[in-house]
């Protein structure tokens, strides 16, 4: 049971390091299921958030990488906004046994600082990141506030949650469609904003809206 | 023998004599035209020796040790031209990139590398397993890990056929390091896996598809293979263990069915099986080399293990397009959707047609399958034919050479049954009409002759076998003739243009 000795040591290491903004604990009193957390790095949309990572340790650890996924919902090109799955090379092919759970969590933290949109996990989010950085930052910040902050989940604004332009939603609402439907259709079509000068896109959305029911 | 049969045998003979001399070579060859496919047979050991020779030659050119060159070539996927080019350009860059640099690392120089031993009083504390150990291994980068951990690490890495690097940095392990650590010839396992990769990456090589056969065939005029396949000829090769297979399909010999017929037929047959249901729901085929790929992680950026092609899991397009002009593949395709809508109306009509064609398909599939099973049974009997030969020798007291007719007949039977089996696949894709009638008449004749010879193999009494030698010879001769006729009839059908794919 060599790996248990190593995991215990890793747990100790994280506990003794008061500097790092990282925690690592057993999830259900088992050494092969842990929970890690880290703080969103400053000057990023994730600042001020606390992110929880679910860690499963395979039997072959440390020769095979730990299986990590986010329990906290994160808006990030390399993290699935739905499942929390992570696309990071060191958790796959580039893993070596000298890497640790601590170093992996630190790598995740730095992934927050420098996303890799060209090798994405969440295509929608990556597209948002590449096409409209400001809008992306806004949405990511909003997700951090709602899902990763201590003051818990407050009233969720669904348009903001998916980075959809408020004005666009209001525009369609005046046509008599429900807010829910509008957001659903816009998400399905992969649209964040419909400009007034784009009648073709607008018609497409209206067509979809009418198709329902 | 009925008149009808007689007629057709005559006919086929005259047809045959036009093209090929009636000498003793295998009948399949009339369609295969062996001289067209030039190939070499290899065994894994020979391949290994070839690669080693390549290394020795290169080590003389570069003036570097053999071990060092093995690692270099392995990183270059055995592309020595590219290696020499790069190496001549900037040897230090190549060395640094591959972790083979002999320059002092980080200004430090680690003298005492290799196997290290410790005492109980002052043991080695391994970073990986966090335990105290007595034996460790140290590379020239100074990184040191206990032997147990290193071994586990190597076992994991050897499977990937890449050059193995220090767990902590980019320094490469040489075959010498690997052998010392594993205590066995671990490096040759790595080399063997590397050969596998070499064979799979190079189109001129193919593994023999027979189970448990490690033979490799190298085609010398690979550019002609495509031409052969286009003209409905079958590039059959024979591996060093005597297994016949089609070099194009990497599949058992499927004479007389051309490659495209075979591919369609196999796909069709597979559609029904549970495995294929699983494959279609869980895997996609690599858009470049058609290997089935299962996605076991979340990332949609796929790299084919076999041909190293990078593509997008969603749209199956090349990954290059996905970098900046981001992801067109998540867009809903309107034109496509309208098309789908229209086709729904046609679907009912289609369903009825499908039912009919399914029945037709099942008819041919059953026949195909029956002969597949019979081939297996024949094969197990032919595998012990050497024993029968010995029994006949001992029981009846004839010489070994006189009893060889059994071995010849067995191989004739196996080949002919395979031809018969594949002819059902051809028949499935034939248009109804005179041509198919003719084809099926020839086919019936072949089936008849196959069963006649197969029946003779049912005899277990050695004395009867010896007495029936003439029957064996006659049945074999008849079978060969009819097999030839079958192959020619298939050629005819293809030339008539009655094959519908």
From TrEMBL, chain A:
Active site positions: 87 (glycyl thioester intermediate)
Domain of life: Eukaryota
A molecular function GO annotation: ATP binding
Keywords, ordered alphabetically: ATP-binding, Nucleotide-binding, Transferase, Ubl conjugation pathway
The protein's enzyme class: transferase
EC number: 2.3.2.23
Matches recorded under InterPro entries: UBA-like_sf (IPR009060), UBA_C_fun (IPR015368), UBC (IPR000608), UBQ-conjugating_AS (IPR023313), UBQ-conjugating_enzyme/RWD (IPR016135)
PANTHER family xrefs: UBIQUITIN-CONJUGATING ENZYME E2
Family: Belongs to the ubiquitin-conjugating enzyme family.
Name listed for the protein in its UniProt record: Ubiquitin-conjugating enzyme E2 1
From TrEMBL, chain B:
Key word Metal-binding present: yes
A GO molecular function held by the record: zinc ion binding
Metal-binding recorded as keyword: yes
Enzymatic class: transferase
A Pfam family of this chain: zf-C3HC4
Entry EC number(s): 2.3.2.31
Lineage: superkingdom: Eukaryota
Membrane-crossing residue ranges in chain numbering: none
UniProt keyword annotations, A-Z: Metal-binding, Repeat, Transferase, Ubl conjugation pathway, Zinc, Zinc-finger
Gene Ontology biological process terms, A to Z: protein ubiquitination
Domain RING-type positions: 122-333, 126-170
Protein name: RBR-type E3 ubiquitin transferase
Organism expressing this protein natively: Cyberlindnera jadinii (strain ATCC 18201 / CBS 1600 / BCRC 20928 / JCM 3617 / NBRC 0987 / NRRL Y-1542)
């Amino acid at each position: 049971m060599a790996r248990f000795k190593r995991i215990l040591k890793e747990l100790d290491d994280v506990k003794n390091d008061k500097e790092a903004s990282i925690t690592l604990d057993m999830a259900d009193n088992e050494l092969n299921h842990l929970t890690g957390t880290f703080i969103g790095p400053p000057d990023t949309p994730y600042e001020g958030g606390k992110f929880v990572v679910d860690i499963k340790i395979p039997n072959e650890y440390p020769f095979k990488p730990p299986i990590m996924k986010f329990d906290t919902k994160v808006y990030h090109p390399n993290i699935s906004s739905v499942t929390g799955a992570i696309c990071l090379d060191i958790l796959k092919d580039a893993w070596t046994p000298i890497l640790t759970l601590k170093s992996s969590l630190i790598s995740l933290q730095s992934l927050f600082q420098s996303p890799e949109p060209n090798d994405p996990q969440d295509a929608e989010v990556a597209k948002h990141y590449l096409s409209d950085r400001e809008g992306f930052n806004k949405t990511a910040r909003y997700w951090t506030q709602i899902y990763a902050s201590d003051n818990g989940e407050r009233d969720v604004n669904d348009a903001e949650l998916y980075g959809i332009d408020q004005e666009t939603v209001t525009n369609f609402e005046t046509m008599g469609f429900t807010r829910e439907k509008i957001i659903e259709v816009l998400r399905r079509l992969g649209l964040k904003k419909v400009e007034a000068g784009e009648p073709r896109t607008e018609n497409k959305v209206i067509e979809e809206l009418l198709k329902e029911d | 023998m009925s008149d009808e049969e007689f007629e057709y045998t005559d006919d086929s003979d005259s047809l045959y004599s036009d093209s090929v001399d009636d000498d003793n070579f295998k009948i399949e060859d009339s369609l295969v035209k062996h001289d067209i496919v030039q190939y070499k047979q290899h065994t894994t050991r020979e391949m290994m020796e070839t690669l080693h020779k390549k290394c020795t030659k290169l080590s003389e050119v570069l003036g570097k040790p053999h071990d060092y060159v093995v690692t270099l070539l392995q990183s270059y996927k055995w592309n020595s031209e590219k290696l020499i080019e790069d190496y001549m350009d900037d040897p230090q860059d190549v060395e640094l990139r591959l972790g083979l640099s002999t320059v002092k690392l980080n200004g430090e120089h680690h003298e005492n590398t290799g196997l290290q031993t410790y005492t109980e009083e002052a043991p080695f504390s391994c970073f990986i397993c966090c335990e105290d150990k007595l034996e460790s291994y140290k590379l020239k980068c100074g990184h040191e890990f206990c032997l147990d951990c290193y071994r586990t690490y190597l076992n994991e890495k050897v499977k990937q056929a890449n050059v193995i690097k220090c767990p902590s940095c980019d320094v490469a392990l040489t075959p010498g390091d690997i052998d010392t650590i594993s205590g066995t010839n671990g490096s040759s396992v790595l080399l063997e896996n590397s050969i596998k990769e070499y064979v799979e990456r190079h189109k001129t090589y193919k593994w023999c598809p027979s189970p448990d056969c490690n033979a490799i065939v190298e085609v010398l005029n690979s550019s002609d293979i495509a031409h052969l396949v286009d003209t409905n000829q079958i590039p059959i090769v024979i591996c060093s263990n005597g297994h016949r297979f089609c070099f194009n399909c990497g599949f058992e010999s499927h004479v007389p069915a051309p490659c495209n017929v075979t591919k369609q037929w196999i796909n069709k047959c597979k559609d029904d099986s549970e495995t294929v249901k699983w494959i279609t729901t869980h895997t996609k085929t690599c858009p470049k080399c058609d290997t089935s790929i299962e996605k076991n992680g979340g990332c949609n950026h796929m790299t084919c293990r076999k041909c190293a092609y990078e593509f997008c899991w969603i749209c199956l397009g090349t990954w290059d397009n996905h970098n900046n002009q981001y992801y067109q593949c998540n867009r809903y395709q309107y034109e496509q959707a309208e098309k789908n809508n229209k086709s729904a109306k046609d679907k009912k009509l289609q369903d009825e047609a499908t039912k009919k064609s399914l029945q037709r398909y099942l008819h041919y599939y059953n026949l195909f399958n029956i002969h597949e099973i019979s081939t297996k049974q024949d094969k197990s009997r032919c595998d012990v034919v050497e024993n029968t030969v010995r029994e006949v020798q001992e029981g009846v007291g004839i010489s070994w050479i006189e009893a060889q007719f059994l071995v010849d007949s067995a191989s004739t039977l196996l080949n002919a049954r395979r031809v018969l089996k594949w002819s059902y696949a051809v028949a499935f894709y034939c248009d109804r009409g005179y041509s198919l009638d003719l084809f099926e008449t020839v086919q019936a004749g072949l089936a008849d002759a196959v069963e006649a010879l197969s029946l003779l193999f049912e005899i277990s009494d050695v004395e009867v076998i010896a007495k029936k030698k003439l029957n064996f010879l006659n049945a074999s001769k008849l079978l060969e003739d009819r097999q030839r006729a079958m192959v020619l009839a298939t050629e005819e059908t293809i030339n008539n243009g009655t094959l519908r794919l």
